[in-house]
Task: structure prediction
Amino acid sequence: MKSFILNRHGSLVLPQNLFPETDFCSLETRKKFAAVVKRDLEQKAPTRRDLLEHKRPVAWRHVPKKRDDLFLPALRLAPALLILASIPVGAAVQPAATGSSAPPPVPLVADPCPRRFAAGDVVQNPPALFSSNGVLSVRFSYQHRIDAYNRELFCFMTPDGLQNPTLHVNPGDHLTITVTNNTPALPLTMLLNPPNCGASSMGPSSLNLHYHGTNTSPTCHSDEVIKTIINSGATFQYDVAFPADEPPGLYWYHPHVHGQLERALQGGVAGAIVVDGIENVQPAVSGLRQQILIVRDQAIPGQPAPGGNIPSWDVTLNYVPVLSPADPGATDFVPATLQMQAGEQQLWRVSNSSADTILDLQYVFDGVPQTLQLVAIDGVPVNSQDGAQPGQPIPAKHFRLPPAARVEFIVAAPPASVQLAQLMTLGIDTGPTGDNDPQRPLASIKLVAVADGALVHGADAGAGANDGRDDGRVGLFSALNPRQRRFAGLSSAPVAVRRTLYFDEKTDSSGETTFFMASQGQPEQPFDPNAPASIVATQGTAEEWTVENHTAENHEFHVHQLHFLVESQNNFKINGAHRAPGVTGQYLDTVEVPYWDQNPSHPFPNVKLLVDFRGPDIGNFVYHCHIAEHEDHGMMSIIDVRPPSVAGKASAIQAIGASPAVGPLK
Ligand SMILES: [Cu+2]
Result:
């Protein structure tokens, strides 16, 4: 394991897998701190590779706390702050809120992060909140708890006890969220240079929010994740303005603090955002019963070695756990239950909100794949942006759903003659160094005869109803809506710049791997929130990006604030991989690039993307691999989109990250 370092901006960077149960008490000097790191992490704790090869936990937080050769006394907050001794006190203590009027904090909610479902339970729609008069105003208490398997769970709770509710907005609406970070304070480990948004130092208990896939502004109090930090005890207010031309479909929200993404997502903190109105772009969904299906992943109890049918991570479906077999050769998965009425069609709106688990969805009757009628991908109704309205669904026998991607499709209930109807994920060849994502059933279909509207209406928080409204059905088609064609004309837009980006990984002699989201022609650097942007683009243009995979595992390319047109998927066959069905020619925010076979005579698998900067959003935001473990370990970079009037004045605006940080610790 690497010891901690000061980066080139003078910020303290702790080892990526350091977790703050480490004893920081009485560490008044850098030397003492280094000694503890050496004693407890370098000498006694196994390296990450060691952990992986022995199929043991891969993060410090997973190291068994009962090992008597590890020094893990209880954390005491005040002394811990001594490690920030050279940070001005004001920098480590965040004011209650920024902005003109400080919102009152959202108090702790009793019984946080409930997970009341057992394996095999019926999947219920999450609780839902709806905007009215152009605004959806939400109050969130960010909380955690430890479950029976020693897993740390995270959640947003509303004051009346809803957990991670689905947020329904219309194009043009404002989503205002007041959030209080009610998780326990942990040591702050890194300084953020100005300009700041919230606190100027961050650590494992820091929070912010990302509105994934939304074409919203990357500014403070909107969808900004590089400098927005809400530390324990602080309250922060978001006001996210959805554009009037936002395509109707499924988006999602989750915390996005660098280094903490995997921990948060595997703790389950994620919820759906639905931009309503898809029925007037894809009339095929009019009035259908809908199931909002959020796939999350989490550590398997007992942390068995992955292999065979033992996955790297268990998955859940709206918090119904999908159990995996204890034996790698066994197939006794226990899927969740999805209810349908005989003869009906349903709209399934699936968000892969897992940290690391790649899905390849298939709907199977007695072993025979059924047709999914794809109606939207990553929030954008398919075939809706150009040409004649309405959009035409795409038939597919399976759909590859990388972490963070969403797909919405129509399925038909199985005829009574079918013995076993299931939603499943096919096995994924993630590459030699990737996770084990075996084929497994996610849910079995159960035909029921229940009065209309009572079928999938429910609240997975267990408390409260659905805001007085039924989230169980899509609205009825009224008239074709041509206004949500945000990306219209992109395919014929002139290409202003062509770039090649690539995923890379470097493993050092200790077995520690650093992950890079690199740009051809620039030195590889792991993500640093204080660094200047790697790419400067001009608002109003379109760029063609070729995103290559130079590594031995799959990666999932995601850009904040915008969508791209998938032009082509290339060289996938060198691994026997197939192009993902349904995505070429569509508008995505997340796309998979399969691994390279490491044969120097083989080309890199890549995707060609037409990236749309024609929208109004300017500023700094990120692009990264959405396998959370990879992003946490550095696979992310910053892009700066500038209005045409200032683009080109490159030296004038390198503001973020340019100012010198405080001096090193003594
Ligand atoms: Cu990755």
About this structure: Helices lie at 30-43, 48-53, 77-80, 89-92, 261-266, 628-632. The longest strand covers residues 495-507. Residues 98-115+132-169+171-276 form a domain with the Immunoglobulin-like fold (CATH 2.60.40.420).
